[in-house]
Amino acid sequence: MSARRFAGGRLVIASHNAGKVREIGELLAPFGTEVVSAGALGLPEPEETGTTFVANAELKALAAARAANLPALADDSGLAVDALGGDPGIYSARWAGADKDFARAMAEINTRLGGHPNRNGRFVCALALAWPDGHCETFEGTVEGTMVWPPRGANGFGYDPMFQPLDRDLTFGEMEAAAKHAISHRAAAFRRLVVGCFE
Questions:
Q1: Would you say 186 and 158 are in contact if contact means Cβ atoms under 8 Å apart?
Q2: I need a labelling partner for 50 at 20 to 30 A (CA). Which of 25, 73, 80, 90 fits?
Q3: Residue 180: C-alpha distances to residues 64, 111, 143, 173, 177 (Å)
Q4: Do 147 and 116 meet the contact criterion of CB atoms below 8 Å apart?
Q5: Any idea which residues carry the catalytic annotation?
Q6: Which sequence spans correspond to the domains of the chain?
């Protein structure tokens, strides 16, 4: 069965994370979609009780779509490190604490890895596009890489300065936005979203 198409108009980005809203807005720009963030609308952040990225993305998208009575796009993403059993995974933001201190979260990952020879992992992104009637479409993307220390670069957000994609010399934190968008987990999920719901 084909995915439901987005008919255009206003779209809520179901996030209060300014960096994430900016990235998604940039990816949506070619489609002439009017985007507004859940934060700008004063929508509450639902508790993320899902056990997977997809479940949490669906939860956030559906909550925003119903509250705003508009289609809503939510992203749940994070860093999964192989030697840490996939942690921090869906808890990536929580590792940074209430004050969103990702420098501390990156240091925690490096400490837990210690001298482990395997520093590989991936960024995972699940996108959910929901409508006020409860219909929801989901799309996933990943990008493989390795954890570097010390972190490098001041671009991007979150764990970007410690994540170096495979076959690249720069971390996400060192890349310009266009270079990151070309290969990121969010871009991979977004390409699937566009094919399924926008084109």
A1: no
A2: 25
A3: 27, 26, 11, 9, 5
A4: no
A5: 76
A6: 10-198
